[in-house]
Structures are given as C-alpha cells and as structure tokens.
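Forum > Structural Biology > Help requests

Title: Can anyone predict the 3D structure of Phytocyanin domain-containing protein?

Hi all, first post here. I have the sequence for Phytocyanin domain-containing protein but no way to get a structure on my laptop. I'd be grateful if someone could post the structure tokens.
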Amino acid sequence: MAPFNLKMVVSIAMVASMVFGSSAIQHTVGDASGWVIPDNPNLYADWTSNKIFTVGDSLVFNFPNGTHDVTKVSKDDYVHCHVSNRGSTVRSSPAIFNLNRPGSHFYICSVEGHCAFHQKLAIHVVGG
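Reply #1:
Sure, ran it for you. Structure tokens for Phytocyanin domain-containing protein below:
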C-alpha cells in the first residue's frame, strides 16, 4: 500500500476547486439603469432573462438615497405590492442582498406607488 501523501491530496483538492468551483457574482440590478421606476415595465424581467443566479451570489441595488428603498418580500407581497415585514427594508444605497438559499426571491421598492409602476424584481436562485 502506498504511503499517505498529504501534499498530493491538498494539491488535488485545490485543482478540483479551481475546475469545479465558481466565483460568486455581484449582480448590479438593472445594470446602468439601476433601481428606478422603469420607463419600460419589463425592465427587470428583461434584465433577469439572460442571467443565472447561484447561491453565494449577491444583488446590488443602486439608487439615489431618499428616493427609493429595497424590501425582500414574499411572492404574495410581490404580486400585490405589499410589505408584510418592514424589517427587511434597506433605505440606503447600495443595498446588497446575499443570495444564500436556492429558490424564488422577490424584491420591491416599498415607497408608495413605486412597486405598482413595476419597480420590483423576481429571480430564481439555483444551488451552488
């Protein structure tokens, strides 16, 4: 039986993590448009259409302070533009949300009327 070689095991683990591991991505919501009341009601749906969100990634919401906020909400709150849990509201920019679990995630601007004018985001996160 060959002797145990710790250096070799560590080297193989490092190479495997480089080949199979992926780096977390910071997704800037809306890219250059930022987090705004969109002129195009499909802005955020279009923005998500070519992205893959993975556990470990994060969302960065950029907006002028005092004009918007970001609240993570349930699907029902997203659909009805309602906020059940105000504790998750971030009022200063950049608002960063870490994607730490797979599944559907929903965000809205809770400033009155903004969500109704399509300042809301729905994404699906896949496992890491």
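The longest strand covers residues 120-126. The domain at 23-126 is CATH 2.60.40.420 (Immunoglobulin-like).
Shout if anything looks off.
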